[in-house]
């Protein structure tokens, strides 16, 4: 290897060695700052999580069904039939499927 090339390599190596401790210290500072920032974020996140309600405790809002009047009536009739069958299975003697129908006089408490 030529002396000029050797001198240049030696200079570069000396320069790297001189800058090495400064660069190492700078990188260590950056690492420490990053770790402290990460710890701070984690602490904030856990505090926020602790103060917030659990998602399972919060109810989702009911979705409005975009039904046609015919389909709504069909579903209502189906549900009334299902509820009537459920009442019958439980042993109830209510046979009326209309919610607004008057109660028979024999079932009223005042006897009128």
Please report the distance between the alpha carbons of the first and last residues.
123 Å
Principal-axis shape: rod-shaped
Number of helices: 2
**Helix coverage percent:** 55-70%
Structural class: mainly alpha
Rg value: 40 Å
Fraction of residues in β-strands: under 5%
**Biggest pleated sheet:** none
Mean pLDDT: 80
Uncertain stretches: none
Explained architecture:
This protein is mainly alpha-helical and 112 residues long. The N and C termini lie far apart (123 Å). The chain has two helices and no strands.
Helix and strand arrangement:
Blueprint lengths: L2 H49 L17 H22 L22
Kindly summarize this structure in a few lines:
With 112 residues, the chain is an all-alpha fold. It is built from two helices and no strands.
Structural features:
112 residues; 2 helices
């Amino acid at each position: 290897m030529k002396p000029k090339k050797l001198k240049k390599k030696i200079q570069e190596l000396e320069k790297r060695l001189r800058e090495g401790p400064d660069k190492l210290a700078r990188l260590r500072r950056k690492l420490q700052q990053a770790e402290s920032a990460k710890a701070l974020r984690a602490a904030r996140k856990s505090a926020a999580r602790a103060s917030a309600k659990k998602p399972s405790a919060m109810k989702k809002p009911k979705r409005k069904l975009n039904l046609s009047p015919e389909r709504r009536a069909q579903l209502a009739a189906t549900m009334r039939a299902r509820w009537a069958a459920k009442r019958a299975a439980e042993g109830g003697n209510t046979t009326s499927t209309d919610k607004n129908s008057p109660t028979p006089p024999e079932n009223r408490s005042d006897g009128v």
